[in-house]
Task: inverse folding
């Protein structure tokens, strides 16, 4: 090897060694990273939250706060707040390279994912996410059951759904704490099902949604049960003297309320100088009917029938047509009648 060759080899070796041990450009030394970001936050409406994002090796890069979603909203870039909302503020600590995004008077619409993003290039970025959840009181949904009318013996289910955060718990109760068809005072679940409805199941049911926020929400669901009439006669045999009044009473339990007719000797009675008929229906499907016999005459002694049938509006809810005889009420005063007939 000649001296010239040796010198050239030595120069190349020195250059290679120098390249190997030379310091790299600053921009290629480290990739920016997010060293700390706030964990998930759960806040009440009207409160304040502060989201922190600390970055490393990002001096020469843009750091953004973005509210993620289908339509992302850019909130800040670097130490500058972009969004024009007085509830938002931004603080930048250059010593720790921390970017603090504060939101005051939190609203329900503020819930979502907030993203701290370090933009490295057009296609490259480093991100960290913070989920902000906002507690919301329960609101029972419109697709919940309103009210129901069912036939005795059929199956029925009442449904109740509610929005809110945390997810509300749905429970059921009956008016006056009556026992539910589940044989308990309360039932937890979105659907309350009754496999075979009885007339005793009719009434008001309460769907209650609760998640510990505010007072919760409640919906009243009225369950009506169509059932065949049940008739009772408080006093089936009565006596009264001539020239006095007498009230004949009949008690009927049915839904819908039946049409009521009083007859004597197959003749339908109506209000006149001899008779006064009154009906009183209560909210719990009971109907009381009273026939007042005014200033009794001898010819008014005898059998009186109380008849019921489909409601006057024409809605039939039990088999058969026309009116059904319920029972007979006998108006007789044997001793008094014999006295006045002599």
Result:
């Amino acid at each position: 090897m000649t001296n010239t060759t040796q010198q050239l080899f030595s120069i190349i070796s020195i250059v290679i060694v120098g390249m190997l041990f030379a310091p790299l450009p600053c921009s290629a030394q480290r990739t920016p990273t997010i060293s700390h970001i706030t964990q998930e936050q759960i806040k009440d409406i009207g409160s304040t939250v502060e989201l922190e994002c600390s970055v490393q090796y990002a001096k020469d890069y843009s750091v953004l706060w973005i509210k993620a979603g289908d339509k992302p909203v850019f909130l800040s870039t670097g130490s500058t707040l972009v969004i024009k909302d007085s509830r938002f503020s931004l603080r930048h600590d250059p010593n720790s390279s921390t970017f603090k995004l504060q939101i005051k008077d939190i609203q329900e619409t503020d819930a979502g994912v907030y993203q701290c993003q370090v933009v490295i290039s057009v296609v490259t970025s480093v991100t960290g996410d913070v989920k902000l959840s906002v507690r919301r009181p329960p609101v029972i949904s419109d697709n919940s059951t309103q009210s129901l009318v069912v036939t005795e013996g059929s199956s029925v289910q009442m449904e109740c759904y509610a929005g809110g955060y945390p997810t509300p718990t749905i429970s059921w109760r009956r008016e006056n704490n009556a026992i539910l068809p589940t044989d308990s005072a309360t039932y937890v679940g979105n659907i309350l099902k009754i496999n075979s409805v009885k007339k005793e199941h009719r009434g008001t049911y309460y769907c209650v949604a609760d998640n510990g926020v505010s007072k919760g929400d409640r919906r009243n669901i009225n369950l009506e049960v169509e059932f065949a009439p049940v008739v009772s006669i408080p006093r089936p045999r009565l006596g009264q003297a001539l020239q006095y009044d007498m009230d004949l009473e009949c008690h009927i339990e049915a839904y819908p309320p039946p049409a009521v007719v009083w007859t004597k000797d197959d003749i339908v009675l109506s209000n006149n100088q001899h008779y006064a008929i009154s009906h009183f229906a209560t909210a719990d499907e009971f109907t009381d009917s009273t026939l007042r016999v005014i200033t009794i005459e001898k010819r008014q002694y005898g059998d009186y029938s109380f008849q019921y049938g489909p409601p006057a509006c024409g809605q039939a809810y039990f088999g058969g047509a026309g009116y059904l005889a319920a029972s007979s009420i006998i108006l007789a005063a044997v001793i008094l009648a014999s006295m006045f007939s002599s």
Observations:
- Residues 141-227 form a domain with the Immunoglobulin-like fold (CATH 2.60.40.10).
- The radius of gyration is 43 Å.
- Confidence is low (pLDDT under 50) at residues 1-27, 312-342.
- Residues 79 and 158 are 55 Å apart (CA to CA).
